[in-house]
Amino acid sequence: MQAAPRILHAGDSALVAEYGDAIDVRLNARVRQLQRTIEASGQAGLVELVPTYRSLMVHYDPMVLSHEAVAGLILEAAGHLPEDDREPARVVDVPVLYGGNEGPDLGDVAARAGLREAEVVELHAAGDYLVFMIGFMPGFPYLGGLPPAIATPRLATPRALVPAGSVGIAGAQTGIYPSESPGGWRLIGRTPVRLFDARLEPPALLQAGDHLRFVPVSRPEYDAIARDVERERYRPHVRVAPASP
Amino acid sequence: MNAIDVLDGGLLTTVQDLGRTGWQRFGVPVSGAMDAWALCAANRLVGNEEGAAALEITLAGPVLRIDGDGVIGVTGADLGASLNGRPLPLWQAVAVRDGAELAFSGRRAGMRAYLAVAGAIDVPAVLGSRSTFTRARLGGFQGRALAAGDRVPVGPCPIARGLEGRRLPREAVPSFGPARTVRVVMGPQDAAFTAEGIRTFLSESFTLTAQSDRVGCRLSGPPIAHLGGADIVSDATACGAVQVSGDGMPIVLMADRGTTGGYTKIATVATADLPILAQAAPGDRLRFTAVGIDEARAALRLERAKLDRIGPEEAATAPAPEIFEEDSGSSLAAAAYVELAGALGVPEAGRAEHGHALRAPMPGLVVSVGVAPGDVVAAGQPLLVIEAMKMQSPVRAPRGGCVARVFVQAGMQVEGGAALVEFEAAARRKD
């Protein structure tokens, strides 16, 4: 038996199944297990499930289901999660051109960390990042796994416009802007790959539970990928990783 | 109807339906109509699926020209809608002719009106919805608000006849006052607040600020005290979640809210009361009252049932052009009429000795009388005009027949229920 999640009320059309209030890899994996188990039930009246760092929001149609029925469904599923909480994950390669115009703050990040720019790039691209959840804006991944050595505070004054695909650091987080927007993250590079395309189903490159690896590319490689993306010929590099964590 | 040509886009006119569900896990906001109930009502009036795409019109309305004959319904806020310069009745299906011009003179009550057309707005669905999410230029009409020069396509209308005159009964029409009480279900993070903070939230009144938009209704009032901080590890957001950030001010998250957020949410507005938020204008005052989930659900069921009351008038449909002659008070008289038409079958001793009397739907002043004894009138024909609450409303014949007697004349003050016109008894047997 697994520890049961807390059921929190989110109005008359949603319940929250909360496993904790921390950013934790195992807890996050449990949320997705619960999501998959509830989805597999095929219960009518469920509208959609939204996994986050530490909880699952279950949207339902109150004209079809009572909150007691939904809570029962959640707890029933939670009681039957697989003992093995490891999950097979996709690893998605995200090519990044670091520094220069694409990463105007790379020098600052390096200076604050007491490192050379090349070392920052090496650290940033060294390991897999876990996509804890997607949120905030369409396709935006909340990533875990930034090496603490290159954690850097946000800019004091946010930029009015950050280009889509920009890769940045804000505190202990790293992330990618899926679309052009204002933003205060320190930009260290840019990917030519689209993180969000509403014409596709699913519309986002990444989903919660994916692993992501930043792959440094040269200017010519970046340009070639950008051309392929433009012509809709680019296929992201995705492989299945051994079960983790 | 082929299309709607936009002569002026208004403040913020967007295509909306019931939203883009199923993609929140990819960070895609639900969007959709802020006042989903009014959108459903508008669609039902004109015979569409209730979640079909319609126009959400905010505060200052657009100027639109109709291309092709069709049927429209405007619901939600009263923004001073007019058709070819004449007041357009709300909450009612109205026939429109090719070239008709629809305009909005200014807000009288509420914030957002919905314009549905028979056949629905025919823009491409994006991720299963025609809703506009302007921040990501997603869906709707090219991902943006309508502007002058746009031509908004309208889909084919499977039901060509019998739509005009369909209406929401007067007593089911919501009112949009400046001080309202909103029902909430406490949680998900009500435990993050002090008892005093909860008391503040549930006993004080909060004012809607001008910073409110489709993402959220921002309120100002006495700060709501947290136990600790306002920040949480980000979790998902429900529509109507009352988020309280570090300054203690509540924001009710609405249609275009981010799918996740890192602030405490003290409560969630009952779905049945979301239209109150959608229709609240800056300066309006709101209070919150806590209810259980079952009560919120029962309230929603009640609201849903009101939509089922949309239908044709019991009296035969009035000739279309006459609808344009009326002012907005007409639906009041018409609604009273539906009841009168039923009451007419019951003879009332002492009021009219013979036949069947038509009675005043409300107390008021008789402005004009258009019939005399011996006249043969058609169902729906205006017989006289009564002024009440500063609005003139035509009183129509509930059915065809011959007028036996007229009890009133212009300038007379009448009580509600007073006999106005008596019909020949024979007229009823003809029906």
Kindly list the characteristics that best describe this protein:
heterodimer, A: alpha+beta, Gyrase A, domain 2, Cyclophilin, 2 domains, 14 strands, B: 431 residues, alpha+beta, 7-stranded mixed beta barrel, 15% helix, globular, disordered C terminus
- Count of alpha/pi helices of chain B: 7
Derived from helix and strand composition plus strand pairing, the structural class of chain A reads: alpha+beta
Total number of helical segments of chain A?
A: 5
3D shape of chain A: elongated
Radius of gyration of chain A: 20 Å
Q: Which architecture name of the largest domain in chain A does CATH use?
A: Beta Barrel
Oligomeric status:
heterodimer
Please provide a written account of the structure.
The complex is a heterodimer of chains A (245) and B (431). The mean pLDDT of chain A is 94. Chain A has 5 helices and 14 strands. With 245 residues, chain A is α+β, with helices and mostly antiparallel strands. Chain A has 2 domains: 80 residues, 2-Layer Sandwich (Gyrase A, domain 2); 157 residues, Cyclophilin (Beta Barrel), CATH 2.40.100.10. In chain A, strands 5, 6, 7, 9, 10, 12, 13 and 14 form an 8-stranded mixed β-sheet that branches. Chain A is 23% helix and 32% strand. By secondary structure, chain B is α+β, with helices and mostly antiparallel strands. Chain B has 3 domains: 165 residues, no CATH class; 129 residues, Cyclophilin-like (Cyclophilin, Beta Barrel); 111 residues, Beta Barrel (OB fold (Dihydrolipoamide Acetyltransferase, E2P)), CATH 2.40.50.100. In chain B, 15% of the residues lie in helices and 32% in strands. Chain B contains 7 helices and 28 strands. In chain B, strands 12-19-16-17-14-13-20 form a 7-stranded mixed β-barrel. In chain B, strands 7-6-9-4-1-11 form a 6-stranded antiparallel β-sheet, with no helix packed on it. Chain B is globular and about 80 Å long. The C terminus of chain B is likely disordered.
